[in-house]
């Protein structure tokens, strides 16, 4: 049953009551499977260009793109929450023991391989903690908490684009920086300019903008070009309502309806 506040929230998002009812109906009744006749293979559903044709396309792109406004479009509003699902599950357990074959065990045993390891280590040092000592004494939850919570790296509250993803020696790059690098390699347009547009969540746009301003000169010097980065937000009208295990609307601590962003199809307008 919808409350007066619910109707106001829906109106603010641009979502109709009928839309919500249809979403809940789909949760209850399930989604129909796509009728599939056979797999698509080269020659039947897939066109596979010959090697010489592929080279023609590459040369065509290279010759045309230098005078055009080429744009790299990046859906970057995805939250990192699902990436850390298994770590959350471990953190909520009463016991602190890890098994080498479990996700938490693999995470701890290969911690040094992660791109954010150096930053994590520094965060612990600031709190007077040593990561090796914590591992030796089995204080795994404290380490995981420093990865997820705001008192440490705060990764559970960041979009994937702002996480450190790859490490090159002592330097690590966020996923956003990797998109700058990719753009420099295949998206250089007229005026030696790389144009990148990212769709982000409203609450994270400022963080993306600050990171871009921080690294902009470094990457422009490295690749000898200019970057033009723009942002837009996914429309709230494309959100999907959250439901509980009984398919009733899920509410937060204040009793407000909870919504989740739609998939990439919701970005067509962007």
Report the principal-axis shape. globular
Q: Approximately what portion of the residues adopt beta-strand conformation? A: 5-15%
SSE string: HHEEHEHHHHHEEHEEHEEE
N-to-C CA distance:
33 Å
Please tell me how large the radius of gyration is. 23 Å
Helix content: 40-55%
Largest sheet composition? 4 strands, mixed
Low-confidence stretches: none
Nearest-integer average pLDDT: 91
Structural class designation? alpha/beta
Number of β-strand runs: 10
Q: How many separate helices?
A: 10
Give a description of the structure:
The chain is built from 10 helices and 10 strands. It has 270 residues and is of the alpha/beta class. The strands form 4 sheets. Strands 3, 6, 7 and 8 form a 4-stranded mixed sheet that branches. The protein has a two-stranded parallel ribbon with strand order 1-2. The model has no long low-confidence stretch (mean pLDDT 91).
Keywords:
270 residues; alpha/beta; four-stranded mixed sheet; two-stranded parallel sheet; 40% helix; 15% strand; globular
Task: Write a brief structural summary.
With 270 residues, this protein is of the alpha/beta class.
